Amino acid sequence: MKTPVILLCLSLFLAESGVRAQPDFAPGVRNGTVAQFETRQGRYTWNISADRLYATPEWTPEAQPIPVSLDKACQLGKGWLAKHHLAGFSLDEVKLFRYPDAVGIALWYGKEAKRRFYYKLKYRSESPDMDLMYVYVLLDGTVVEPKLTPTPDKKS
Question: How does pLDDT run across 6-21, given as a tens digit for each residue?
Answer without folding.
Answer: 333 433 333 333 333 2
